[in-house]
Amino acid sequence: MTARVLDHPGFAPELLALSAVEVLGPAAADWAERLRARYPDASADGLARLASRRFVRSAGAGGAAAALAGFFAPAAELASVLWTHSNLVLHLAAAYGRDPAHPDRAVDLLVLTQVHPDPASARAALDAARAADDPVEGAWPRAAEAAWRLAAPLTAQAGGWVALRLAARLLPGAAVLAAALGDAAAADRLAARAVATYRPRQSQSNHSRGSSA
User: Fold this and answer.
1) Band of residue 95 on the pLDDT scale cut at 50, 70, 90
2) Closest listed residue to residue 96, CA positions, set 208, 191, 209
3) pTM exceeds 0.85, yes or no
């Protein structure tokens, strides 16, 4: 997969989504099966809450660790975010009975992380990534495009890195705290989008009635 990304950097988000489903999907399926076997009365919403809490905490910890990476902090945070967000979406899919190793989860990843605006464009891009053969000529301009698309989960925070560096000089630990809180909040928003996507409509209706009661 690394070689494929280097040969076709413009398809980096799609290739990484396919790889995430292949590598992380089976573990997410095993997690859901183990919990259902251990707690047969557990609801899908209950499993989803467990997954959300786990990976929101993981996102915060990853953001804090990345903030300590100095000059490489943005790149370290991006790697942490991609890993955590992929795991979060795939575990939530498993919680609601979707196969986290199914190729359709790559579509979900690209849409829920806002790399693509809708499933149709995500599928078209995935098909193009799968069909890509020879290395692309003049790949580095496309690499810049890929980097921008990959960084979609961090774009809201990207402008804050300079401010964090300045604040860290005056307030030790400020950059670490801000990165932890920001990444945890981003994961929490992603979890809400994923739950809204995967939760059956009937369950959504029942949840709404229960909340209003």
Assistant:
1) very high
2) 191
3) no
